[in-house]
Design a protein that fits this description.
The protein has about 140 residues and is α/β, with parallel strands linked by helices. It is built from 4 helices and 5 strands; from the N terminus they run αβββαββαα. Helices cover about 45% and strands about 20% of the residues. Helix 3 (about 110-125) runs antiparallel to helix 4 (about 125-140). The longest helix has 27 residues, at about 10-35.
Length: about 140
């Protein structure tokens, strides 16, 4: 922005200081998510220094927590800690690791719509499109 050259070490120090500064709010966000009635869970592949990792994103309409982890499954979810004592409803994509937690579960309709589209396109099943429209209409009414 100011055309001041910064060394890689300076940038690394800035990132580390920033990470330390946000730890208290991250702790509060994680605690609030763990106490929420409903939490949406998702994970997406990403690369860190050329290595495949996973961006875990538990969220509510008000809160979102982002955490990169080398694992996609239960090891990562346990280290993130939000689901360990969560008693609300976890909305997710049917990934097997989520089912191992003692809470209520619901499946994400966006994933249902993707699967219905694949059924329609790959298997030429026209009912899948009609069912997707049905789900979309239900959503539009709320």
């Amino acid at each position: 922005v100011f055309k001041v050259p910064l060394s890689p070490g300076t940038l690394q120090n800035i990132v580390c200081r920033g990470a330390e500064a946000v730890k208290p709010i991250q702790t509060k966000i994680k605690a609030a998510l763990a106490k929420s009635d409903v939490v949406h869970l998702d994970e997406s592949g990403c690369y860190v220094n050329g290595e495949r990792q996973w961006l875990h994103v538990p969220s509510t309409p008000e809160l979102t927590h982002y955490q990169v982890h080398k694992n996609r499954g239960r090891l990562a979810l346990n280290e993130i800690e939000i689901l360990l004592n969560f008693k609300g409803t976890a909305i997710h994509d049917n990934w097997a690791s989520y089912w191992g937690y003692d809470c209520d579960h619901g499946l994400c309709n966006v994933h249902h719509l993707r699967e219905l589209k694949a059924i329609e396109q790959n298997d030429e099943q026209m009912w899948a499109n009609r069912f997707a429209l049905f789900l979309s209409n239900i959503y539009a009414r709320f």
